[in-house]
Every structure is written in C-alpha cells, then in structure tokens.
Specification:
2 domains; OB fold (Dihydrolipoamide Acetyltransferase, E2P); elongated; alpha+beta; single chain; 5-stranded mixed barrel; de novo design (two linked rop proteins)
Amino acid sequence: MEPLQPGHLQPAYVLHARDYRDTSLLIDFFTPAHGRVAAVARGARSVRRGSSQRAILQPGQPLWVSMVGSGELKSLRDAEVRAPAWPLRGQRLFSALYLNELLSRLLHRDDAHIALFSDYENTLQQLAGSELLDIVLRHFELRLLDELGYALVLDRVADSGEPVAASRLYQLDAQGGLIEVCGRSAAGIAGAAILDFLAGNYSLEARRALKHLCRRALRLHLGPKPLRSRELFGTS
C-alpha cells in the first residue's frame, strides 16, 4: 500500500463521524487505496469555518479527500464533492448505514480494498435505484465476506466436497461451510433454496435462506455485539 501523499486527493466515503473535542469531527473514511482510515476534521463544527465542510462530510456523499499524518489517526487536509450524493431515503438510507457499520466493524485500518470500494459504490447506486433491497444487501455481504477471506462456498458441501443437492437440508458450520443435516427432526436450509439463489431465482424461500446464511456467517466475525443499524430497518 502506498503511503498517504500530502495534498493528494483520493476518492472516499464517510463511514461514521462523531464530535471530537470542541469544534472537530472524528471520521472513519473508506478509500480504495488505504481502506478504512481514521482522520480528524479540525474545525469542521466551527460555525465560522467548518459549516460548509461539515455539510459534505456525510454518509452517501462521494468525496475527494486528502489527509496527512503517519500515525493511525490522520488529519483531514481537504474534502471536496466528487459527485452528487446518492438519493437515499427510508429503509434504503438505513441499509447504507448498515453497510457502513459492517465496514467499520470488519475492516482493519489502512488495508487497501480497491475492488471492495467499487462494489460498495455500485451497491449505493443500486440502493438509490429500485432493485430489491434484500437482494442488493445479500450480494454485498457475500462480496464482503469474500474480500475478507471468509467466502461462503454455497455450491458444495464442506466436509465431502459433494455438490449441494436440492432435496437435502444444510446448515452453516463454524468455519462458514455448508454441512448436511439428517434426520426427521433436523432443522436446516433446503438445498433447493440455496441453488435457486445461486441461479438468480430469488424466490421468497431463496431470499430467506441466504439471509439466514449471511447473518450466521457475519455473526461469526462480528462477535456478540449487535449491529445498531439493524435496529433501524428491522429484518432486511
């Protein structure tokens, strides 16, 4: 990863911002070349100097930013609008905040994620459109897990390597692989639902199956602390 170059503008999004000291903001940015970066926006809350800057330092706003500093906490030197903010409202806005919380919780600082940045931006574009909300989220969750090295293998069984069968039931094990469950009282996800999702057949059963699998997989890496953003939009 290349070091931050003073004055060098790079694309970025705000993942999270909070008040810092008297007039500043502490911001988590997501950038392609440096991944998640923490920076102080000095004076951004100042009525005289920072009101215009604070107005653009919002989630969903494509930015150009430049930062300086060699430590874990950088200083924001400049922030400019890169494109119009994505028009997100209601559950689609809450869904974007959910994506931001996932990235804040799961990405290490200062790790490049060029492909994931592109996926994130494409997902915001889809959220601003009319595509099915839960399908958009599932695809991003799957890409995020893949980028982090925890890809879900959904077309074959983890222990045997056999293809997933439509007539059988499966669960996700602790390593994120599918295992077959047997017995009359067994509770599991129908292989048919998993295969339907992989084939782009987004039936209600297929959508429920992938929601369960992605929630289970993410929980393995997020730990017991709940995601606050999920409380905003319920069960998507």
